[in-house]
Each structure stands twice: as structure tokens, then as C-alpha cells.
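Section 5: illustrative case.
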């Protein structure tokens, strides 16, 4: 994510609405045990274990595929969907949850059997299958749902989730919440899954989503677009955008398909920016290793939304976005999308590195980053508010403070501390080791300690774990001194 310049802080209001305990132990009541025989199956609960967003995501299973069929009418803003969610039970399950905001569920089946369900709290869909699900076995849940999707209004970042564009179209984007405003999901970055979208809209509208474009079919005044993203994605990186887009298709030199979409009213300055995508990706590959996605592109909306977001393979760009934004969001294809955070406390893995990519892009064109670093440190030395945010485990609501500016300086300091050779080799081995997976900030620290052979604990503490300006030995590592 890259916030609109003056909207840096993200204040997240999470309603911890007295939901459920995370786990419930199997009942000791023999009659109950019989109900869930052969073994006492677990009623898996709400929450995947994130300390900041305890009710996000759910326990008890691992999703492998979201296969969505939606119909959206921009005129009425009505969305109707059938979501087939394929998952593997991680324990014997008598009950499990999915997350869905505001939309109303009319039917749930697990396999081909109707299942009982109830919608609780602000986003919990609690499903009781006709028979318990066995640990280790895949199962498909089919949810029929519909309604008018909601926008999540955030005091500092503006609107996220389902948003209506000024052209009358719509798009879904937001962090940490977005997906659940348009499909039932296990809404945690820990559970990455493939995504297939089939979206039906009135003729004249176009649908763009993640991954690779499939066939388009027209019938009775409606057009159905299909998209498929095989690379597992975190739910907040899923998107669908509906507008009267101008679509430009091309390929990267290695054949990777590129789809760029421009909403009506997009400034003419944006196409020359987007057309630099192949050069940007080629340059980032020299720093971070091979491009880890199967598709590329971008979605330019014509609205001044509060942020641009690294929706997988196809970032969403606000009307204010520029080339630096394009570099930032595409750096996220490595840091955030391919290597995803385990916890929201780890967000610097995404934002500090994507923001540092903006500096690397300047370096390509001859900017002396050491000089830039020294200048910025000196300009800000007395500004305690600049140094105050912690870059790791910053606390709920503070995730996006500091990571875009102090985070850049911290990454440059790390580079100077370990040397260019170690720094870039370690970044490449990091993206390779955790490709299509999840990682934590402490793992990143360990990775650099190992790669450099330096202890680095005091360095990481001063820059990333503590509040306040780092001591001079960390602020001005030998490599950056004049
Ligand atoms: Zn970002």
C-alpha cells in the first residue's frame, strides 16, 4: 500500500464484538460425542491468531481455492454470488467459520449436502456441516449470497473494501480488510489460496481481476469475464474492478501476460507511466530476484482514493499515483504478495522494502543514496515525531506509521551495515526461500544475521524495535560516513 501523501497514518477501528473463543475443546458429554462421532470433532472458531485482529480469519482449515461466480449490476449496485471454497480440514471439524461483511447468505452446502449456517457479529459466517469433516481431507463449501456490498470507512485512509467509482463502476481494495465485502473468505494473510473469478456484468462494462484473463462470453444483455490467479494470494490482495475500462494487453519479454486497465477519466499522463512497467520489473529483478508472479499489469481508477494497493499481479492506482507509486506497488509483488506477512505486526516486511525500492529506482538514475540518506537524517535529527514509530510490533492501528519514511532510512542503514553484496544477496535468498509463503519480521532479522555473520541484534533493536532515534553507531554505519 502507498498512502496518499498527506494520509500517512492508518487508524483501524476494529470492533472486537465479543465473538467466540478461539478454540473450543471437544465436549466431555458422551451424548454430544456420539453426535460428532467417530471422533470428537472440533467446533473451530473465529480468528486465525493475529494479535491485532483476533477475529480475522478462522481456525480449523486451510483454503486452497476460492472459485467465485458473481453477478454485479452497476445500476442497482446489487451483487449476487456463488462462492465455492475448497479447503483442507486441519482437524476433525463439526463446525467452522468464514468471514463475510454485510452480504446475506441464502444457502450453504458442504460437498453436496445442505449445511446449517448462521451469520453472527460483524462478519462471522458459522457453518455446521451435515456430517463432521475429517482431518486432512479436502472439502468444498458452496455459499450462495448477495446484497449491496459495503464500504469500510476509515478515519485516516478513507474508504476501503467495496468502493463505487465516480464513473458508476466499482472496485474492491483495502488493507487489512477488503475481500470479505465481496466474497466469503478466511480473511487472514496466513491462509493464501488460488482465486478464480467469473463475473457477469451488463454489456458495456468490463471486469478486471487478478492473474490471467480467460474467455469472455455474452448472453442476453450480460457479459461474463473470467480470471484465474494460480499463485496463492492473501485475501486482501484479491480484487475485482468493474468499469468501462480501456484495456491494453501486452507481454513481458519472457511471455508473462500484462493487462493494463484505465477507467474513463484517467489522466493522459498515466499511460506513459504504466508503459514503463516492463523496465521497472526488469530492474527490480536485478535487485530482488526473478519476478515471482505469473501475470502483471495495473488498474488505474480515476478517483482520488486514499491509497494505491498492491492487489496481486494488478495493483490498483489512485488518480494521484505516479511512477514512484508504480515502483512501490510492483516491489510488493515480491514483498507482501509472494512473501506475505504472518502477522500485521510484520508489516515492515512489506512496506519498508517496497518503499526502499523507490530509492533503488532513484539510484538507477544516478541519485547518490548515501548523500540523500545523510541529508534526510540531518534534516530530521531533531524531529522526534519522525523517529517515534516502531517499525516492528508497532501496535494495532499504527501499522502504517513510520514504514514509508523511517522504514526507508532503516533499510538503507541495514544495507550500509552489512554491505551491498550481502544486502542484495540476502534479499534475493529471502524472496526465494519464502516464495509463495509467509514470513515474520524476526525471521528477516535472523536471515540477515546469518547472511552477514554479524550479530545485528542491537542494530535491529535501535532501528526497528525501538521508538526514538537510533544511536549514532547505528544511524551512521561506517559505510555511510563521509
Ligand atoms: Zn505499500
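Designed sequence:
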Amino acid at each position: 500500500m502507498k498512502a496518499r501523501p498527506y494520509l500517512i497514518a492508518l487508524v483501524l477501528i476494529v470492533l472486537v464484538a465479543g465473538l467466540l473463543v478461539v478454540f473450543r475443546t471437544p465436549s466431555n458429554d458422551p451424548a454430544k460425542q456420539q453426535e460428532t462421532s467417530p471422533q470428537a470433532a472440533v467446533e473451530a472458531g473465529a480468528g486465525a491468531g493475529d494479535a491485532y485482529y483476533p477475529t480475522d480469519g478462522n481456525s480449523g482449515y486451510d483454503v486452497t481455492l476460492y472459485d467465485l461466480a458473481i453477478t454485479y449490476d452497476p445500476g442497482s449496485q446489487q451483487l449476487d454470488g456463488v462462492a465455492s471454497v475448497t479447503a483442507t480440514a486441519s482437524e476433525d471439524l463439526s463446525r467452522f467459520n468464514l468471514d463475510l461483511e454485510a452480504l446475506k447468505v441464502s444457502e450453504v452446502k458442504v460437498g453436496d449436502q445442505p449445511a446449517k449456517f448462521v451469520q453472527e457479529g460483524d462478519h462471522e459466517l458459522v457453518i455446521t456441516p451435515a456430517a463432521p469433516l475429517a482431518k486432512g481431507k479436502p472439502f468444498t463449501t458452496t455459499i450462495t449470497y448477495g446484497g449491496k456490498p459495503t464500504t469500510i470507512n476509515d478515519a485516516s485512509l478513507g474508504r476501503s473494501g467495496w468502493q463505487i467509482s465516480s464513473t458508476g463502476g466499482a472496485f474492491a481494495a483495502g488493507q487489512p480488510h477488503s475481500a470479505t465485502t465481496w466474497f466469503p473468505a478466511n480473511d487472514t494473510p496466513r491462509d493464501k489460496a488460488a482465486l478464480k473469478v467469473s463475473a457477469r456484468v451488463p454489456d458495456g462494462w468490463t471486469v478486471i481481476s487478478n492473474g490471467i484473463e480467460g474467455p469472455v462470453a455474452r448472453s442476453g444483455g450480460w457479459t461474463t469475464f473470467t480470471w484465474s490467479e494460480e499463485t496463492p494470494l492473501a485475501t486482501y490482495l484479491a480484487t475485482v474492478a468493474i468499469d468501462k475500462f480501456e484495456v491494453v494487453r501486452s507481454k513481458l519479454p519472457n511471455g508473462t501476460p500484462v493487462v493494463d486497465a484505465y477507467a474513463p477519466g484517467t489522466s493522459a499522463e498515466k499511460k506513459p507511466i504504466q508503459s514503463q512497467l516492463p523496465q521497472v520489473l526488469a530492474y527490480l529483478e536485478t535487485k530482488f530476484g526473478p519476478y515471482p508472479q505469473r501475470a502483471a499489469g495495473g488498474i488505474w481508477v480515476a478517483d482520488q482514493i486514499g491509497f494505491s494497493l498492491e492487489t496481486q499481479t494488478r495493483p490498483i492506482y489512485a488518480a494521484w499515483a505516479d511512477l514512484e507509486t508504480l515502483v512501490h506497488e510492483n516491489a510488493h509483488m515480491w514483498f507482501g504478495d509472494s512473501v506475505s506477512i504472518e502477522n500485521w505486526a510484520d508489516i515492515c516486511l512489506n512496506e519498508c522494502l517496497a518503499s526502499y525500492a523507490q530509492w533503488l529506482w532513484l539510484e538507477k538514475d544516478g541519485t547518490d543514496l548515501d548523500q540523500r540518506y545523510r541529508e534526510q537524517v540531518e534534516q530530521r535529527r531533531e524531529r522526534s515525531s519522525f523517529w517515534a514509530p516502531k517499525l516492528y510490533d508497532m501496535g494495532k492501528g499504527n501499522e502504517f506509521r513510520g514504514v514509508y519514511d523511517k522504514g526507508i532510512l532503516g533499510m538503507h542503514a541495514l544495507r550500509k551495515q552489512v554491505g551491498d553484496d550481502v544486502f542484495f544477496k540476502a534479499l534475493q535468498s529471502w524472496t526465494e526461500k519464502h516464495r509463495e509463503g509467509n514470513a515474520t519480521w524476526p525471521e528477516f532479522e535472523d536471515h540477515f544475521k546469518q547472511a552477514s555473520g554479524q550479530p545485528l541484534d542491537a542494530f535491529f533493536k535501535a532501528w526497528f524495535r525501538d521508538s526514538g532515534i537510533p544511536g549514532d553507531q547505528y544511524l551512521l554505519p561506517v559505510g555511510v560516513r563521509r
